[in-house]
Write a structure and sequence with these properties.
- The complex is a heterodimer of chains A (291) and B (357).
- Chain A is mainly alpha-helical and 291 residues long.
- Chain A is built from 15 helices and no strands.
- Chain B has 17 helices and 13 strands.
- In chain B, α7 packs across α8.
- In chain B, 41% of the residues lie in helices and 20% in strands.
- The model of chain B has no long low-confidence stretch (mean pLDDT 88).
- Classes of the chains: A mainly alpha (291), B alpha/beta (357).
- Chains A and B meet through α11 and α12 of A and α4 and α6 of B.
């Protein structure tokens, strides 16, 4: 049997190594050249992030608790959920994780804000053009299935360690559900309702704002809910590139085999996730109930 | 030309990948089935000519799939024709640029849908105000008009309800108010009461007739129910397989159906209630001086008890001004109701005469 039938013929070590080198060199020189310029673009984001984190940390804890509970009540009108929110925050605080929780809350809130600001318009664009949908769908698939560490590499090469690469990684990982469900929600709006708005001479803009977006809102909320969950699951990985918060103690616990520390901080992430999930879902249900 | 009239000429609608390519075949009169099976195109409307005068109610009737909903959607250009012309109030609807088309739909023509097509996330008030919102009507003016129409269709007190909380009949009242609120001269109604129970349907017909007597709009009313067509329509166009088979008033349709197909339709209706004395009377008889006179626009059902006071004789028929315009007899009425034609011509008229003597 010839050699190439026994083991898979490759293009050759030498050749592959040179290809990799070309890519790495190319990207490295790009980041050397433009790294600072790109970083400058993200400076406003960094300010926002730092400002929000400091705000949460500098505000007295009871004020933050009251504000979160008030937000929860405004969104859900459920006293039970408010009670749970209060209990969770108090327990997390009592167990000494208040500051880390606030840091995580800050980065999750800002990341969610960015995914919504970017994701909803992208989803709208995708819903209006079948071609755009055909292009976006595989890209979103890649974003969701590519191992996270892989796209951490270029982000870290460009930005170094810190908050900004953390937020970017979280956004890339967490944005697909918002885009997908905004697209789906708009496409699911009943044909007859759209025909009625056409029959009354509504413009494309009126149709979008008055009919399509409100009717797609429960789906968009479901997308935001999933996005928040995915963002939270990125907390530990983001801590590997220097994002402070609940992820860092978990990472420390893993490397030092501190079992209790790992469990506690992990539980705090879970508690935050459950809170966000229940609040956004209850809000989504309320939107749906209005019909 | 009056601004509320509709003219349609030589209208064809073919659905499929390349309708223009099969149009020569369609014009040569290819069958619907052949076009579908061998050319993969669906012929929805074939050579439609229709003229609806301002202020009249034109019914478009036919079985489901005959193209009636497609036809009505040409009038506000929700559907583009493959060929032909549509003009409303002298304006060629098909050449309107997008902005003017929107304006046309906002202010000239409005529509009521079979399955209501209300906005489920908006209150009754917001639904009714939708047409005015997209016109950017000033807020106070909008609220005033919305309140008036909600009141007029009998929905006062439900302003803040959502469509999902209302019954079907009430939902369609919202649909009606939404269409009326823009004060458009033309109202398209696509099987508006098809989804409602018979009793509620009768209520709604009454509401529409009351509104029409007051508003005198040009109405195009689509239905599959001949009773409904007769109740609301000035003229009734019967559509079959995308073609208008007959376009006539109810009397003409019942007394002189164009073909077997239409006759089949008319068999189910109550002829005594539909037919008017004026449509079945004989020429006036000079020697008549019976005190038992009937009005020409009385239904046969109403006339029969009066005439049968002296069954053997003819009674004079008078128009609204009291002039004698014809003569009617029990026999004449019975023949019209039972026979379906003026003269049966098979001896049954004589038999009836004998029985009545």
């Amino acid at each position: 049997m010839p050699e190439w039938l026994k083991s898979f013929p490759t293009l050759g070590e030498e050749f592959l190594r040179s290809v990799r080198r070309v890519f790495d060199e190319g990207y490295r020189s790009f980041s050397r050249e433009y790294g600072e310029a790109v970083e400058a673009i993200f400076d406003p984001l960094l300010y926002l992030l730092v400002w929000f984190e400091r705000l949460l940390l500098a505000t007295p804890w009871w004020l933050v608790v009251a504000a979160v509970c008030a937000l929860c009540y405004a969104a859900t009108r459920s006293k039970k959920l408010v009670a749970w929110t209060l209990a969770t925050l108090l327990v997390v605080g009592l167990l000494g994780m208040w500051e880390d929780t606030m840091r995580t809350l800050a980065i999750i809130s800002i990341s969610t804000l960015i995914t919504v600001v970017l994701g909803v318009p992208l989803g709208i664009a995708m819903s209006r053009s079948d071609r755009l949908q055909a292009i976006f769908t595989p890209v979103l698939d890649v974003m969701q299935t590519m191992p996270i560490f892989v796209y951490l590499i270029p982000v870290v090469m460009l930005f170094g360690l810190g908050k900004i690469p953390g937020v970017i990684a979280v956004v890339i990982y967490a944005i697909p559900p918002v885009i997908r469900l905004t697209n789906l929600g708009i496409r699911l709006v009943a044909e007859e309702v759209l025909e009625a708005s056409d029959a009354f001479g509504a413009s494309g803009r009126d149709k979008l704002i008055q009919v399509q977006l409100p009717l797609a809102l429960p789906n968009i909320m479901a997308g935001i809910n999933q996005t928040i969950m995915m963002a939270l699951s990125m907390v530990v990985i983001a801590s590997m590139i220097g994002v402070r918060g609940l992820g860092q103690p978990v990472l420390e616990a893993v490397t030092n085999q501190y079992f209790a520390m790992g469990i506690l901080n992990g539980a705090a992430v879970v508690a935050l996730a459950i809170l966000f999930d229940r609040i956004t879902q209850a809000y989504g249900r309320r939107l749906r109930a209005i019909r | 030309m009056s601004s509320g009239s509709i003219q349609v000429q030589g209208l064809y609608k073919v659905f499929g990948r390349d309708p223009a390519a099969v149009m020569p075949l369609v014009r040569e009169g290819i069958g619907k089935e052949e076009l579908r099976d061998t050319h993969g195109h669906v012929l929805a409307l074939r050579n439609i000519d229709l003229s609806v005068p301002e202020g009249s109610v034109q019914v478009i009737m036919g079985l489901s799939g005959c193209g009636k909903s497609t036809l009505v959607r040409h009038f506000n250009r929700l559907v583009e024709p493959t060929e032909g012309s549509v003009s409303v109030g002298g304006v060629d609807v098909l050449t309107l640029p997008p902005g003017e088309l929107r304006h046309f739909r906002q202010s000239v023509i409005s529509m009521v849908f079979q399955r209501f097509a209300l906005f489920p996330h908006k209150t009754v008030r917001a639904n009714v105000g939708f047409g005015l919102d997209v016109q950017r009507t000033e807020e106070r003016e909008r609220d005033r008009r919305v309140a008036r129409w909600i009141e007029r269709v009998g929905l006062a007190g439900y302003e803040e309800s959502y469509p999902g909380e209302l019954s079907g009949g009430m939902q369609q009242r919202v649909g009606l108010a939404r269409a009326l609120a823009t004060d458009a001269k033309i109202l398209l109604m696509d099987e508006p009461f098809g989804a409602l129970d018979p009793l509620i349907r009768a209520d709604m017909q009454e509401l529409v007739l009351g509104l029409q007597a007051e508003l005198k709009k040009t109405v195009v009313f689509v239905t599959h129910d001949l009773e409904e067509a007769i109740a609301v329509g000035d003229r009734i166009a019967i559509l079959r397989d995308g073609e208008i088979v007959q376009n006539a008033d109810s009397q003409e349709l019942v007394l002189r159906p164009a073909d077997r197909y239409i006759e089949q339709f008319t068999l189910k209706i109550n002829r005594a209630r539909v037919l008017r004395v004026g449509s079945v009377m004989e020429p006036p008889n000079m020697e008549l001086d019976s005190p038992l006179h009937c009005g020409a626009d009385m239904s046969l059902e109403e006339a029969l008890p009066r005439v049968s006071a002296s069954p053997g004789e003819e009674a004079p028929v008078t128009d609204r001004d009291g002039n004698v315009v014809g003569a009617i007899s029990v026999l004449r009425i019975l023949v019209a109701v039972a026979g379906g034609r003026y003269s049966l011509g098979d001896g049954s008229e004589d038999r009836l005469k004998r029985i009545l003597r």
